[in-house]
């Protein structure tokens, strides 16, 4: 896909720089983008430009030509955004949470705050109301909540899973 984007980018830049512009060729290129692009934003920009480019190919009206140039510019901006290098670790797996952090999430407690036993027990009671088997919850979810409370109350007694 990146190779196709690069070729479209070059072709669009060539069309934009040409004097006079070949609007029939621009229409063919944009129609190809509409058919083959997997990116919704690019496809939408190309679909919106297509009627203007076809109109520019049929007549020499200066206003239509300016509108066509703007539409090609919009498509080119979208292609530039798609081909720009991205920084950071895009497909990196998220950092694994410690058992204590997983327990805090399960009980709806903040991750970086010092907790008292009362805070933990209150959060456990709040969460257990909906998870208790007598209240329509599952037994396993209730057991998991109890384990989460134990992990938080006795943090050194449990190893990271």
Characterization of this structure:
This protein is mainly alpha-helical and 161 residues long. The protein folds into two domains: 2-83, no CATH class; 99-157, Helix Hairpins. It is built from seven helices and no strands. Helix 1 packs antiparallel against helix 4, helix 2 runs antiparallel to helix 3 and helix 6 (117-131) runs antiparallel to helix 7. The longest helix is centred in the middle third of the chain and has 22 residues, at 62-83. The chain is rod-shaped and about 80 Å long. The mean pLDDT is 85. It comes from Bradyrhizobium japonicum. This is J domain-containing protein. Residues 102-161 form the J domain.
Main sheet summary: none
Structural class: mainly alpha
Helix content: 55-70%
Query: How many structural domains in the coordinates?
Result: 2
DSSP summary, beta strand count: 0
Mean pLDDT: 85
- The H-and-E topology, N to C, reads as HHHHHHH
Rg over alpha carbons: 29 Å
Distance between the first and last residues' Cα: 40 Å
Report the β-strand fraction as a percent range. under 5%
pLDDT < 50 runs, ≥5 residues? none
Output the number of helix runs: 7
Tell the overall outline.
rod-shaped
